Amino acid sequence: xxxxxxxxxxxxxxxxxxxxxxxxxxxxxxxxxxxxxxxxxxxxxxxxxxxxxxxxxxxxxxxxxxxxxxxxxxxxxxxxxxxxxxxxxxxxxxxxxxxxxxxxxxxxxxxxxxxxxxxxxxxxxxxxxxxxxxxxxxxxxxxxxxxxxxxxxxxxxxxxxxxxxxxxxxxxxxxxxxxxxxxxxxxxxxxxxxxxxxxxxxxxxxxxxxxxxxxxxxxxxxxxxxxxxxxxxxxxxxxxxxxxxxxxxxxxxxxxxxxxxxxxxxxxxxxxxxxxxxxxxxxxxxxxxxxxxxxxxxxxxxxxxxxxxxxxxxxxxxxxxxxxxxxxxxxxxxxxxxxxxxxxxxxxxxxxxxxxxxxxxxxxxxxxxxxxxxxxxxxxxxxxxxxxxxxxxxxxxxxxxxxxxxxxxxxxxxxxxxxxxxxxxxxxxxxxxxxxxxxxxxxxxxxxxxxxxxxxxxxxxxxxxxxxxxxxxxxxxxxxxxxxxxxxxxxxxxxxxxxxxxxxxxxxxxxxxxxxxxxxxxxxxxxxxxxxxxxxxxxxxxxxxxxxxxxxxxxxxxxxxxxxxxxxxxxxxxxxxxxxxxxxxxxxxxxxxxxxxxxxxxxxxxxxxxxxxxxxxxxxxxxxxxxxxxxxxxxxxxxxxxxxxxxxxxxxxxxxxxxxxxxxxxxxxxxxxxxxxxxxxxxxxxxxxxxxxxxxxxxxxxxxxxxxxxxxxxxxxxxxxxxxxxxxxxxxxxxxxxxxxxxxxxxxxxxxxxxxxxxxxxxxxxxxxxxxxxxxxxxxxxxxxxxxxxxxxxxxxxxxxxxxxxxxxxxxxxxxxxxxxxxxxxxxxxxxxxxxxxxxxxxxxxxxxxxxxxxxxxxxxxxxxxxxxxxxxxxxxxxxxxxxxxxxxxxxxxxxxxxxxxxxxxxxxxxxxxxxxxxxxxxxxxxxxxxxxxxxxxxxxxxxxxxxxxxxxxxxxxxxxxxxxxxxxxxxxxx
Length: 975
Known about the structure:
Among the domains are: 104 residues; 179 residues, Rossmann fold (3-Layer(aba) Sandwich), CATH 3.40.50; 77 residues, no CATH class; 103 residues, Luciferase, Domain 3 (Luciferase, domain 3, Roll), CATH 2.30.38.10; 106 residues, GMP Synthetase, Chain A, domain 3. 33% of the residues lie in helices and 27% in strands. The strands form 8 sheets. A 9-stranded mixed β-sheet has the order 18-17-27-26-28-29-30-31-32, with helices on both faces. Strands 23-22-21-19-20-24-25-35 form an 8-stranded mixed β-sheet, sandwiched between helices. It is elongated, with a radius of gyration of 34 Å. It starts with a strand and ends with a helix. About 2% of the residues have low confidence.
C-alpha cells in the first residue's frame, strides 16, 4: 500500500572526545504511496462514531447547523459498506442511530436535520457513550474512528478537562482514534485540541459553512489513507549515550506514540541525548538505536512491523567541527520550544500574571520569528495570541502588544494640553455599505444581528439581501444621491437596514427620536427637507401613525402611485410604514417594498453604489444648541466608517457579541454599537425596541454577550434591579459608558457587582461621531486612570484643551476641549452660522465642554456646557423647555435646570412664575400642557411655583443656586 521510511538527522555529525556532549537529533518518518498498486488497493472499511454537541451554547452563531452539515457531509463521503453511529448530547446522552450502514444515508439525513439544541452540556458523557458503541458493535477488519463535533464549552458531569483527557487517552489505548472538530468562533480551543491530541487524532476548526466539505473530506481522506496504525518510535542509547528527552512525549522508555501514519506524509520527532567517548580522533561511534513499530490497518491486533536504524557520530578533538547546526534540527527545536510555552502562557493568563505572560509571549514570538520568516511583528502577535483568544484576559495582553507598533505614549511627557494619537492604522476609503458588503461576502452565514423582541436573527447574507431589496425599491421610487430620508423608529431591524440602504444609494439618513411628537417631528423633517420617511404605527404608548396623520391630513386622499403633497411637510414625497400593511392607501408597506425589490434587477443598484463618494454625507443626527432648536449635525461615510474601524482595532476582541440596548437615533448606539458589522465578523444583540432592563439582562444571559454599551442609567438599573441574580451576566468582558461622565466609584462598583471584567468610559459628542476618547487606552495596571479619566483620543485624532483664543493650555490647567480629525462633522445642515461657531477655519471642533489633560494625554472632565442637562444619556437644553412653558396662558416666566438623580444622572426641574391672575393654575396643568408639545423625557419631573428667581446683582439668574435650593427642598421633604 505504501512505503514507510525513517531517517535520523543529528544537529551535527561530530562530537568532542572526552567530554559529555549534549546532542539533539531529528527523526523523520516519511510515507509514500505505492503508485503501481494504488488503484488495486481497496481501503479498509471504517467503523465510525460521530459525537454531536447539541447543548444550548450550540444555538448561537449557527453552530449546531454547521455541525449538522458536517455530519451530513460525512454521510455523503462514506462508502456504502462503512458503519456509522451518531451520539448527540446536551446534559443527557442520546444515541440517535446505531450500527447504520452508510448506504442508508437518505434515511439518516432527516434524522440528523431533526436534531435541536437542548440544555447544558455533558461532553464527557457523549464521548463515553461513543466509546461504548465500539464495544457493543465489533466489526473485525474495520478501522475504529470517532469524530467529536463540539464547541467544547461548559462540561458537566463532575469531569475536569484533565479527567476528560485521561478518559480519551484510555479509549485511544483501546484502539480508538479520536478526531475533534471545534465548532464556531468561540469554541474552547484547549479542550478540543486536547481531545484530538489525547485521542491521537487530528483537530479541525469548523469556522463557517464554506469550509465544512473541504475539512470533512480532508479528515476522512486521512482516515482512508492510513498506511500504518499504532505507530511507535522507540529510541535507545548505545555506547554510554543516554536519551534525555523525546519532545512532546513524557515517557522516554515507551518512546513516541504516533498513532496513525498517513500516506504521502512526513512526521518529525525531536530527541535530546548525551554522548561521550574516549577514542582516537576521527573514530565513528554508534550512539543511538531506533525502531519504528506499526501495524497494518487491516491487521491492527497482529504482530507489528519494524523499521530499524542506528545513528553514529564521529568523535574529534577540534571543536570547530561542531559549530554548524543542521537547519532542520534548529527549526524543529525552535518550534517545539515555542509550543511547550503554550501551557505556561495559558497558566499565567489564567492566574492574572499578565506581565509574566507578556514576557513569555515576547520570548515565544522572538523564537518563532527565527524560523517563520515573518518580519511583521503584528502578524506574529496575531498568530501567537489567537491560541488564547477564548480567555478574557488575553484582550488586555493584545492591547499591550499593539502599543509596541501603534504606540499612544510618547517617551517625552506632554507639557501643553495637546495630544495627537499617531497610528499606523491605514484609512479605509470606502462607503459604509461597500465595507458591509465585503464583510458579508466573507462571512455570509455568520449571524450578525439578533433582535430579541422581534424574534429575528439575521446572517450577513440575509441582511444584505434585505438591504439590497430595500435599496432597489427606493431607487425605483426616484430617490437620488443626496436626498434626505427620515427614520422615526425605535431599535428595529428596519432601522439598521435603512442605514446600509441609505449608504448604498448615497442618501442621507436623518435619525429622529421616536419619542418626538408632532411639532418636533415637523421641525426635524422640514429643517433638512426630507424626501422620505420610515415610521412604525406605534412605539409603546406613542401613536406614531396618528401623530403623523394629524400633520399630514392629505395622506388619506393620497395614493402611493404618485408623490405625496403636504402643506406642512412640503418636501416629503414617500412614507413607508413598518409592520403589517396599513389600510391607508398613501403609505408604502416596508414588507411589500422588500418583496418587490427582490424581483428587480440589481445591476443599476450596483452601479449606483460604486459611484458613491466615500466623502459624501451619509447621516444626520440632531443635536441642540443654546437657542434650543435642534441642529442637524451631518457626518460622512468616510468619517463614520474609519472611526468604527479604529474602534474595532482598539476594542474588537471584546465586541464579538455586543449588546446594544440604547436608542439607535443616538449616535453612540450606531457608531459604537450597530455599525461594527461594517468592518468585522461580529454579532450585535438588540434586547428590545426600547430600553428595558429585564430585556437587556435576559439578552446578555441567553446570547452570552461579551460587551455592553450604554448610558449610565442602563447600568444603574441593572445594579439595582431585584431580579439581577436570576441572570448570568458573567460573559461580559467589557462595558463602555458614554453620554455623560461618571464618577470613578460608580465604575468600580460596576466591575465588582455586575460583574464586568473591564469598565471604561469615553467622551464624544454628535458632532464628532460620538467617540473622541476611550478610557481603555489605559491598561489594567492603570485602573485608576482607566476608570477616573475620559481616556485618550482615538487613533489619528488630535485633541487639545484650549483657552479662549484656541491655544493649548499648560498640563493640568482647565480649558475647553477642542478636537480635530476625520470623523468631525462637515457642518450643521442648513446652518452656516452655527457651523462657523462650532468649527474653526483650521478644522477644530469647539466642544464647549471643560476639562484638563495630564502629561500622557488623558482627559479629565470638569464640566459640560453651562446649561445643558443630560438625562439618561440624552442631551436636553433648558431654553427649549422654557420657551414651551411660557406659551401656557398662566405663565409669566420660567427657568429650567437640572438636579442630580441617582437613576438618570440628572433630572429636569422647572421654577415658574405665574401671572398675577393665574392663582388657580396647578402643577398638573403645566405637565398636561407640555405633554402634547414635548417628548416625555423633556417634561420636568419637579415643578415649583415661585415669586422670584435667585439672581446676581446684575440681574442674571443663578441656575446653580436654583438647583441647590431644589435639592435641599427635596431632602427636607423626605425627612
